[in-house]
Amino acid sequence: MQRIGVFVCHCGTNIAATVDVKAVAEALGHEAGVVISQDYQYMCSESGQDLVKNAIKEHNLTGVVVCSCSPRMHENTFRKAAASAGLNPYLVEIANIREQCSWIHKDIASATDKAIVLGKAAVAKVHLNAPLTAGESPVVKRALVIGGGIAGIQTALDIAEAGFEVDIVEKEPTIGGKMAQIDKTFPTLDCAACILTPKMVEAAQNEKITIHSFSEVADVKGFVGNFTVTIKKKARFVDETKCTGCGLCTEKCPMKKVPNEFNMGLDNRTAVYIPFAQAVPKVATIDPNYCLMLKNGKCGVCSKVCTAGAIDYKQTDKMIEQKYGAIVVATGFNPIKPDKYDEFAYSYCPDVVTSLELERLMNAAGPNGGTLLRPSDKTHPHTIVFVQCVGSRCDDEKGKPYCSKICCMYTAKHAMLIREKYPDTEVYVFYIDVRTPGKNFDEFYRRAVEQYNVHYIKGMVGKVTPKADGKIDVQASDLLANEQLHINADMVVLATAIEPDKTARPLATMLTTQMDTNDFFTEAHPKLRPVESATAGIFLSGACQGPKDIPETVAQASAAAAKAIGLLCKNSITCNPCVAHSDELMCNGCSACEKVCPYGAITYQDKEFRMPDRSTAIRRVASVNPAVCQGCGACTVACPSGAMDLNGFSNSQIMAEVDAICK
Amino acid sequence: MQEAMIKRAKELLADGTVNRVMGWKRGEFSYDITPAVFETAEELDAEFVCDDLTQANVSKYLIKESRKEGKILALLKPCDTYSFNQLVKEHRIIRENVYVIGIPGGPKIDIEKIKAKEISGILSVKNEDYTLKIETIYGTETMPYYEAISGKCENCKSKKHVVFDELIGEDGDVLESNRFEMVEKLENMTAQERYDFWRDQLSKCIRCNACRNVCPACTCENCVFDNPKSGIDNKAAADSFEENMFHIIRAFHVAGRCTDCGECSRVCPQNIPLHLLNRKFIKDINSLYGEYQAGADTTSRAPLNDYSTDDCEPSIVHERGVE
């Protein structure tokens, strides 16, 4: 005979305000097998847990049902409590009467009814629970960092510092990411390259770090502690091990009209190129879309001038496979292209630029060697208009609904730098709000306004019209003065919204991690687990999780590293005992389960069986490797014969729950 | 054609390629053609039949037969080859133990359609230039061939043999059939009309299990309806609808694996159009996941056992179901 204890939690008023917890405890007390049914204010508290423990001992309970919050919150808490009282932890069931009941209902009577039904389902299930024992699986002591921007570099450095091997996969020919393209950083105005490039070099020189540049993650298999990742090393047509980065090939390459991505297409590079002087690894890459040799088979200049013999036109994409214990995603962001905003004339007026383009125009390594000149006629601009929130905080489908967070600060920086270097230039900033929460941020913005006399105007720019004389007419409204303005500008700078990198969405699918509607990775808990994804062993670093500035990115990168290190420090992790198993007498051997198993946990073998008529027959039957199975249950629903079943979530348990609900 | 089959079967028995032949013989009545296994040339000469009334799909018998000692010869019509292939794909038939001869398909004759013309005491049916000459104990009757075509041949999907070791007769092509016409009619009904239609049909069911037993997709070692562990075997129906659920559960069970061979409706003694349930699934799978024919090959992933990033969202499936 089952002796089941039911424990109904008030969760303060979280549950008790919408669910009559006493009525729930009373009703469930009448269910078959229930010997004790209690309610308590905070079941997860020390005294609440004691209530459960004492009841287990006193009533010699064979099963426990806790009606409380989501099992993601406290299932472990109550399992541990049960275990300490001598009850197998897998004889505990949680009925979620908070997230799935009290929080989403207003009417007390119907919420109470629902809570009772959910409790009945859990009681029906726990009747069929069996004690389970968890096994262990080893942890591969190596981490993968996807993305080699400042987030990925910082994470990799921290993990390597703790003594673990770590690989960085970067899709571009060099690590460095967006920060490498930035001129100065707010609020201290130190040069981005000066603080970034030492870190890039440090990563390259660290024995524990392997950098796979110009590479992509092609496939991810496995699970926490034991991922198998296939990395595609794209053909760069240059032997990385031989190239010294001397740059002779880039000087001699006859194909010099390739838009330079690093300078946002504002100048040109050669077909064989090194993205920038401090690139890591400092290795040339041949662009097959422009290389005359690769396109027409005629040229070969780079190969002739290369003294190291590094040029290899026959190089192909290479796949490498590596095992990892932890994966950190650091895929970063991109500014959106503002070409959908016809009112800003970006697509046809060269003097309307984005903020990142302005960074390159002002950078010493940029197209103009650091002198700010108009892209159209290379003259010095005397009036510059900045437009904030282009595509950010936007309701229509052209833009993004969120605040891109960094634009207010970098625009203040741009305005200040221009006023500092060119005091004769007037700078106007059109804003909706100026958002400056951050250490020394508001002081920085106020300096731009008060010390540098930047004209901040609250209002939106309506239309940007290039004029025949080369000037740009900026029509805008001043909301505070309530008037329409026309500014005769030389340049317009658009603070474009930022969005997650396009590679993030397919990557999330490979990693089975979640994303929000804007394609930012979703953290396991928005407040309490901000650097972990909901998938065990996958961590989040930097702007792939949401818009961030550099200090925040670095902080999160180190936090993600700490979480990864915590995992890598373990020799083994406790496996989930809720794994699938096959009833060989029922199995048809059809392979349906084998095909749907994402972990490759199912194999088939021929076994001899004694048939009902006492003959023997060889039958093909499935067997599950419990160390590899993650208990997703895909096989149990694919199985046509009902042979596959899942410990802790057996078909009969699910049916019992459904029956209890439908009764 | 029957003579050619017997001749070739005898040759294969004689040269040791096979030691048995899976074919058909006459049953209780001369027009009841039933699957049979032949082991000798004499048996073949005496009893083997393959005529216009031979409809039975013998694929399912090969699950057990292919596990016996030696190789068996199977004579498969085009539609049967799809079932055979699907069973090979599910590792139910051991392909190496079967020698497949593809034979021409229908249109076959349904004896019930002749009986429906109030022709009784039938002794034999002969096709003479697309006029059926029916010998009865009361004399000779005639009727046009096309009025007696079997339901499962009316909407033939394919004349192509998807698997064979050799052919007797010509191979054909996959046909443009209008097999979803009736499904579309049902789809266009209101929910109530459709419910009434199926209640009317399914209430005729006597739970003889003929549909399950003949179905080449229903091959579980232990059928859920017979398995004491399932908790529903021998269960008394709580209401009349529960009994109807048998067919709905079965249709879900074979979804994605049903080749649309039509055997379920053919063998139903109550003439319930069971194949329409399966065809609805086939039609939906085609429109939601792309054209798919179960049994067309042995390597592809079945849509319901496969997942890809561009699979349609469950919400779309759900929305379509909302009236």
Give a quick rundown of the structure.
The complex is a heterodimer of chains A (663) and B (323). With 663 residues, chain A is α/β, with parallel strands linked by helices.
Protein architecture, described:
- The complex is a heterodimer of chains A (663) and B (323).
- Chain A is an alpha/beta fold and 663 residues long.
- Chain A has 5 domains: 125 residues, Rossmann fold; 173 residues, FAD/NAD(P)-binding domain (3-Layer(bba) Sandwich); 58 residues, no CATH class; 163 residues, FAD/NAD(P)-binding domain (3-Layer(bba) Sandwich); 68 residues, Alpha-Beta Plaits.
- Chain A contains 18 helices and 36 strands.
- In chain A, the strands form 13 sheets. Chain A has a 5-stranded parallel sheet with strand order 10-7-6-18-31. In chain A, strands 20-27-21-22-23 form a 5-stranded parallel sheet.
- The mean pLDDT of chain A is 94.
- Chain B has 323 residues and is an alpha/beta fold.
- Chain B folds into 2 domains: 138 residues, no CATH class; 146 residues, no CATH class.
- Helix content of chain B is 35%, strand content 14%.
- Chain B has a 5-stranded mixed sheet with strand order 2-1-3-4-8. In chain B, strands 5-6-7 form a 3-stranded antiparallel sheet, with no helix packed on it.
- In chain B, strand 6 and strand 7 form a beta hairpin.
- Chain B is globular, with a radius of gyration of 21 Å.
- Chains A and B meet through helix 16 and strand 35 of A and loops of B.
Tags for this model:
heterodimer, A: 663 residues, alpha/beta, Rossmann fold, FAD/NAD(P)-binding domain, 5 domains, 5-stranded parallel sheet, 26% strand, B: 323 residues, 5-stranded mixed sheet, 3-stranded antiparallel sheet, globular
